[in-house]
Amino acid sequence: MILKGKVWKFGDNIDTDAIIPARYLNTSDPGELAKHVMEDADKDFPSKVTAGDLIIGKANFGCGSSREHAPIAIKAAGIQAVVAKSFARIFYRNAFNIGLPIFESDDAPDKISQGDEIEIDADKGTIRNITKGEVYTAKPIPPFMQELISAGGLIEWTKKRLKAS
User: Fold this and answer.
1) Ordered strands of the 54-56 beta sheet
2) H-run or E-run covering 43
3) What is the pLDDT of residues 44-96, one digit of tens each?
4) Cα-flanking dihedrals φ and ψ of residue 17, to 5°?
5) Cα torsion at 71, 76, 80, 86 (round to 10°)?
6) What is the DSSP string of 57-113?
7) At 143, is the secondary structure helix, strand, or coil?
8) Under DSSP, is residue 14 helix (H, G, I), strand (E, B) or coil?
């Protein structure tokens, strides 16, 4: 799987309330959540982001609550993937459960700038910064997790498995 897009950059400890503020949790409609994604971190983000963009975070991205609304809002906004130094474990699992690819990288978040264009090779675990001509490493996504992403998440993967049996 190859992902290519423009970067939006955020810092350390981006919690689930910054990703999707609690005041919008009266809905689970992905389209409605997408209208408010990251607005407490950057109030103009929902109007600036375009389908195919990527988010770069630093350490502990997705900390806070266990709500699935956070990765759902990111994915519904058209974000292809998130790269960070580390993810809160519940966010990590929720992201794969809904089919949002995430990548852990020690060096990419410090070296990539907002607006850079990058290309991620999920199989090889490489992140190529097209803008700067640099290459960084990420933990490759295991084949089973790539299956979840390709299927659109755990529920869709399970439905396909049940139909096949």
Assistant:
1) 102-104, 81-84, 54-56, 2-9, 117-121, 126-129, 134-137
2) none
3) 999 999 999 999 999 999 998 888 999 999 999 999 999 999 999 999 999 99
4) -70, -30
5) -10
6) --TTBTBS---THHHHHHHHTT--EEEES-B-HHHHHHHHHTT--EEE-SSHHHH--
7) helix
8) coil
Name 134's bridge partners.
129
52 three-state secondary structure: coil
Nearest to 83 by CA among 62, 105, 64, 100: 105
Tell me the pTM: 0.92
Task: Tell how strand 126-129 and strand 134-137 pair up.
Answer: antiparallel
Written as one letter, the residue type at 81 is A
Are the C-beta atoms of residues 125 and 139 closer than 8 Å to each other? yes
Closest CA to 3 of 80, 104, 75, 85: 80
